[in-house]
Amino acid sequence: MASYDFASTRLFVESDLGPGAEVTLDAAQANYLRNVLRMGEGAGLLAFNGRDGEWRARIAEAAKKRVTLAIESLARPQPAPGRLRYLFAPLKHARLDYMAQKAVEMGASRLSPVLTRRTQAARVNTERMRANTVEAAEQCGVLEVPAVDEPAPLGAVLAGWPADEPLVFCDEDADIADPIEALRPLKGRPLALLIGPEGGFDPAERDALLRLRGVVRISLGPRILRADTAAVAALAALQAAAGDWAP
Ligand code: SAH
Prior knowledge:
Elements: E1 10-12, E2 22-24, H1 27-36, E3 44-48, E4 54-62, E5 67-76, E6 84-88, H2 93-105, E7 110-115, H3 126-140, E8 147-148, E9 152-153, H4 154-159, E10 167-170, H5 179-183, E11 191-195, H6 203-211, E12 215-218, H7 227-241
Parallel strand pairs: 1-3, 6-7, 6-11, 7-8, 7-9, 10-11, 10-12
Antiparallel strand pairs: 2-5, 3-4, 4-5
Bound molecules: S-adenosyl-L-homocysteine.
């Protein structure tokens, strides 16, 4: 991996970034830099917004009520947008936070909560999910902050699925077969992965999924994995076989 500056603090901002730009931080960010990280005027950090790449920045003003950054030079260009949509039945609270963060680290470019018959979480706090994706991007040097969709019923997602797009269906009922071999033909295609709820998919859902033209049904081995474990395992297999883990 190219030499990467893990030492510097990375901060996600909404503002446009470019040479000479000045960014005024919101109260939470100002407090974090000043009072938590005890950074003062002149301190250096990295700023990114998910669109313009990562920029070297310096604290220009660190007043009690106002912290501004002076944007200096480009540290890393914005990568080409990813094409890995991660669809999942939302879990509850901490495990959902975990899933959102791991999806970012594993390179998901879009998070799509999908409501299935056995989904446990009645409602999904997408603001909280987005905050988790930003935090994961800041911590792991990810420059593309994935889009977070509003939850949608599985039936609606499948009804609107583009006929020529693959959907990797992680089916706990699938016969054991080499997932890497099943996923390799997807190299170069827009990728999408579906993980079910703790209670698994119900028969009607499985039938609808298997009728989808672009469906690629895979097994994740002889053991039943918990949904958050299955998510990381499946994303790893997909990235290794057909995604950006291979040049
Ligand atoms: N009904 C089981 C399975 C749920 S596991 C149970 O209640 O424990 C949650 C989800 O993780 C599944 O819907 C599936 O998408 C994925 N998953 C878990 N283990 C898997 C496996 N061995 N093969 C394929 N997918 C798996």
